[in-house]
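S1.2 Input.
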Amino acid sequence: MLRRFMVRLCAALVFGLWAVLALAQSDTPDYEAWRDVAPRAEAAVEAAEASDAALIELRSEVAMWRQQFQTQLNANDSRLQTLREQIASLGPAPEEGAEEATEIAARRAELNAQLERLSTPRRTAEEAFSRANGIITEIDDILRQRQTEELLDMGPWPVNPANWGDAARHLGESVVAVTTGVGQAWKNPSRRSNAQDNLPLVIIFLVIGLVLLARSRHWSELLAVRIQRGDHRSGAGVAGFVVSLGQIILPMLGLFAIVRAIGATQLFGPRGQLLLDTLEPIGLTLFYSFWLASRIFPRSDAVPTPLHLPPERRVEGGVYTCILGGVFGLFILVDVFGDFDRYDMAVNAVLKFPLILVAGLLLARVGWLLRRPLREPLDEVSGERQFSARFLGVLGQGVIAVGILAPILAAFGYGTAAQFLTFPTILTLALIGTVALLQGVLRDVYAAVRPGEGARDSLIPTLASFVLVLMALPLLALIWGARVTDLTEVWTRIRGGLTVGDMTISPGSFFTLIIVFALGYLLTRAVQGAMRTSVLPKTKIDPGGQTAIISGLGYVGIFLAALISITAAGIDLSSLAIVAGALSVGIGFGLQTVVSNFVSGIILLIERPIAEGDWIEVGGQMGYVRSISVRSTRIETFDRTDVIVPNADLISGTVTNYTRGNTIGRVIVPVGVAYGTDTRRVERILKEIADAHPMALANPAPQALFMGFGADSLDFEIRMILRDVNWMLAVKNEINHQIAARFIEEDIEIPFAQRDVWLRNPETLHPRDARGSQGAEPAAEPEIMTPTDGDMDTDGDGR
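S1.3 Output.
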């Protein structure tokens, strides 16, 4: 299984190199050679008797031809487009029987001949491309059908005791063959002499290898934990991760030294050589699983982990991960020796069944650990944590199902299906764990480069994490049985681009559009920054006008960047007419409010009836304008809350701007005094208080006015113009304090409200007075009362 995966991975890398080289290939295909290849490929597909390897090789050959044809399809696009435009510029062809100028007719014929000559290779390439594509599709169908049949094929039952004897015998023969090969090599004088000559080098390599195998992993883990325990910054996390990789690299170097030391002796046979060749992938599997266990299930709290588990569960998960790595390594060994010694199906089933059974039990336990975070109350954690917990919960359920189902399938003879479920699941868990760790490292790297609160959860590391997931998808496909040919097919379709009508958007044009637009966007932001910091502050334009100019530059720059990027990508703008028409209909019906607010925002930025920093009142909301965008305006009220007002309300509604143009404004302070007070004295006192206030303007001078006779008091007002109306409440507060203090000094009374309460039919208050003829006392006279405000009856019924 691992060998197949490694073969697929290497083939994918080779394919990537071939794809890059193919992009630069533009030679005309040899159609004569293709006419020899195509019938042979069609005959092999029709017979469907060739082996998988032969079909894959044939598919690769046909795919190379198809790539040449696809390149030829787009070879003369620019020239053909130019010719069509030249022909169109000559005007429509004359109707039958009509005459055309001789020069124009000759030119039209010449251009049509060139167009026909350049179009012929394209049509030939298009026909060959369709033929090659059909052959590739049929080969893929055959391979996919064979793979499905292999998974559903039932073989010998490993639980049948009749198969155990042959399995034990074959296994013993393989072990004996390894030892026999060592003995035969020792009897060879030349090999024995060579081993004696290389003995010092062998001893040195063995010592180095054994030391690295025994202690290097522990040293790396201890150093990584110490780095992250002493410093909780992001840089320490990155350093700890890099140091932890020594748990893989250093033991692998030790294993490499041991294998080279044993290989230098040459005291082994063919199976011994096979065992040495297999030790390195087995060692890589083991050391990688140990490293994953130390990072995903760390024993120290200093090491961050994507799983939120208690310490005892982390220890348990680490043990399971290490054992799964060992089981996978044994499976590689059994698979390699099974292919070499040609074990029959019964022997393979018996030898692999214990590994599948142990792996299934371990996967079930790992799945249970993954589902553990889902049992926590998710309402108390962040959204990202909730998504992670739900994903792990679903993943854990799937792993548990595989752990239960795979041994059952293997026991009943479906060994291929059981292997297909078990070991790809192990590799998938390793891939997911690796991606999760790399995402954490990317966040730490960004936080170390751009330190600040929330840097790890900002947009850039999030996008980088998403790109990392996309890069892992091809590996995931290879793990679950996808062939390299499947990836090549996907790549071919991506290269072919998306066709909408007569417009084709290829990956090259898409990336050109993105790059040009990004450059235009950055240039626009740079110009805006220069205008904001260097140019506009040196002019006499007010801050609102500067904001309007900068915003206008931004919209114009983005529009031009989009227009230039679309043109650079080779997209015909006339092809967007249908989209524009549909968009206009949508605007007319569903986006009226959005468009209205947008237009109102443009008007606000041009006319500038309000500006940032103005104190306004609109729709019952009062506060300071903090920002004006094309859709809405943000107002900060006096209780420090933000109110988002649509721009259409500011244009169509009534807006009071208290600080438009200047900050001068009037404040009115009302006050009442008791009846009988000398009004001239009160007027003089109030005038003195107003004149003395530093915020009051001398011209016009403050006024103290006797406004009239109120129900409970003589009413006065102080009216004064303030230098800064933003201080209105503070000035009013200070004036009231001064009025209260002066009135106390001058013995002037500020009255409370007075009310006369009349009691009608007071006899109804006493039941005994209601009897009348039984000696009731006469009704009481009405009583006039002057209660305080707290004792008043204000229900309006006079009782």
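S1.4 Remarks. The chain has a mean pLDDT of 80.
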